[in-house]
């Protein structure tokens, strides 16, 4: 039996052409592996057949939508993870899951290598290979686009010459990655950061400029996990799917960003993450009600580092796992309801309720009968400002 390589197959240009290029370059049989992480508008049966039509000896499709939601999206939500305060880690959190199945499939089939369709300029090459190295260090990672000089124009020409069944062409040069958490679009005219995105780029959201009545929704959380929408119990996957529709219909979650890639270059990206941005806004506000001040402040720094680690392909790293433990501990009281108003591209919190809230009306109110003893404030301020006062006297004595 010939040696095999397991290719992470998306059904797009690079991985479709990559099947033939891998066979030619290595002499190995190519097994295509597609992982369903909720790619909207993609028929996985069509993708399975496309891989076979492009020369794969075997085509495997794994339905991992619930696993993706439970084990990857939920931790991301608990971390309020936004790279550079804006990117909700759309592609970054799917790569370790795909890599997990790449490694396990390769081991199961006796393959000695795995492959992906990433370029040498992107982040995903690092995410795939770092994850595989952490899970199955004995496997070799191959990248036909990067390692065998498969440029985009060559890929388009190869696909046309070999009559490969792919939709991408010179008239549609975008690179698109999507899953249930969001959608990422790059290349083409977007590579000029002065060019504004056009409406045709978007599929997960409607134009926020279109006039429509606001949508009000109540999201219920249990220890940081969204468990119900408007009182109806739902799974994490169902929460994301429903919020994609509700928030997407209001144009929520469109992001146009120049981001700092791991490899050192800046890249212009267009993202759609209606559910992601709406759910993070709701979860953050519930944390404002339920986390102690010092925990909340410290967690913001942990969230930033967590997002950087995941963006940089270190999902299975020791530091990320340790931060997971801290984040999970912070969620034990993040339980309650958040009311969101979705309208004109924004998701605004308009109501909060929690049985584990630290918000005390009797302490917060300015009305007569409040339980806060304001007379304590004077002495507190004296002690709080004492180090500054002593330092100021020292500076004055030193002539500064």
Task: Tell me what you see in this structure.
By secondary structure, this protein is α/β, with parallel strands linked by helices. It has two domains: 4-174, Rossmann fold, CATH 3.40.50; 179-353, Argininosuccinate synthetase, chain A, domain 2 (Alpha-Beta Complex). It is 42% helix and 20% strand. It contains 13 helices and 14 strands. The chain has helices spanning 13-26, 44-53, 65-78, 95-109, 124-135, 144-147, 152-161, 236-248, 274-290, 293-311, 318-330, 361-364, 376-397; strands spanning 4-8, 29-36, 58-63, 113-115, 140-142, 175-179, 182-186, 215-222, 225-229, 232-233, 254-260, 266-272, 336-343, 346-353. The strands form three sheets. A five-stranded parallel sheet has the order 3-2-1-4-5, with helices on both faces. The chain has a five-stranded antiparallel sheet with strand order 10-9-8-13-14. Strand 2, helix 2 and strand 3 form a beta-alpha-beta unit. Helix 1 crosses helix 7 (152-161) and helix 8 (236-248) crosses helix 9 (274-290). It starts with a strand and ends with a helix. The mean pLDDT is 94.
């Amino acid at each position: 039996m010939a040696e095999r390589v397991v290719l992470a197959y998306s059904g797009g240009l690079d991985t479709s052409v990559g099947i033939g290029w891998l066979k030619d370059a290595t002499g190995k049989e190519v097994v295509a592996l597609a992982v369903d992480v909720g790619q909207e508008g993609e028929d996985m049966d069509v993708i399975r057949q496309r891989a076979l039509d492009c020369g794969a000896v075997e085509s495997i499709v794994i339905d991992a939508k619930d696993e993706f939601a439970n084990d990857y999206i939920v931790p991301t939500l608990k971390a309020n993870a936004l790279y550079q305060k804006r990117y909700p880690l759309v592609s970054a959190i799917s790569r370790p899951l795909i890599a997990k199945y790449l490694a396990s499939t390769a081991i199961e089939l006796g393959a000695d290598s795995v492959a992906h369709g990433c370029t040498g300029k992107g982040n995903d090459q690092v995410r795939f290979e770092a994850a595989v190295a952490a899970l199955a260090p004995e496997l070799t990672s191959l990248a036909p686009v990067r390692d065998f000089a498969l440029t985009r124009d060559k890929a388009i020409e190869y696909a046309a010459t070999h009559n490969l069944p792919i939709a991408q062409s010179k008239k549609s040069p975008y690179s698109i990655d999507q899953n249930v958490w969001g959608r990422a679009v790059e290349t083409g005219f977007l590579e000029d950061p002065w060019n504004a995105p056009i409406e045709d780029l978007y599929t997960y959201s409607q134009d926020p400029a279109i006039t429509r009545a606001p949508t009000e929704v109540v999201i219920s959380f249990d220890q940081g996990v969204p468990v119900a929408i408007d009182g109806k119990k739902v799974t994490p996957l169902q929460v994301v799917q429903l919020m994609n529709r509700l928030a997407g219909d209001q144009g929520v979650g469109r992001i146009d960003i120049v981001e700092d890639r791991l490899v050192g270059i800046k890249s212009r990206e267009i993202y759609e993450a209606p559910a992601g941005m709406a759910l993070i806004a709701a979860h953050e506000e519930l944390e404002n009600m339920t986390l102690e001040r010092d925990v909340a402040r410290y967690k913001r720094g942990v969230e930033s580092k967590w997002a950087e680690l995941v963006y940089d392909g270190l999902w299975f790293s020791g530091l990320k796992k340790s931060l997971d433990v801290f984040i999970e501990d912070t969620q034990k009281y993040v339980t309650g309801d958040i009311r969101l108003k979705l309208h004109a591209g924004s998701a605004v919190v308009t109501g909060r309720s929690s049985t584990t809230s630290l918000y005390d009306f009797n302490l917060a109110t300015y009305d007569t009968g409040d339980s806060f003893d304001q007379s304590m404030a004077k002495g507190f301020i004296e002690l709080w400002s004492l180090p500054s006062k002593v330092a100021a006297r020292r500076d004055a004595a030193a002539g500064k």
